[in-house]
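Researcher: Here's the sequence for the chain we discussed earlier.
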Amino acid sequence: MFIDGIKVTIVSIIYLLPSIFIIGFILGILIASVANQSAIIFILIAILYIIIIIPISKMAIAYMADNDSKLGAAFRFLEILNKISSNGGIEFILWYIVTGIVFFNDSYCRKCCN
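Model: Thanks. This is the structure I predict for it:
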């Protein structure tokens, strides 16, 4: 189980690397304060990437587990996307949107009502 946990951590980090680089680039821009408007655009790109990649990375981890914990299975993008679409991709996307709304609504209500 420990090795499987390490594999899950590796897959998660690799899927989030582009957003980590974008955020690092943004911090560099903000520290240099060269162009604050471009920083906002990059922040929006990073947030959009994270919103899209989190459910895909979770499906990749499940796909890796389904393939005897082979690390390479988590990066077979076409197979993973085909699995998502064949197993109710629309329902998956709707579920993701609804749970996101519930989460943010709950977070907002906790801040306002307390």
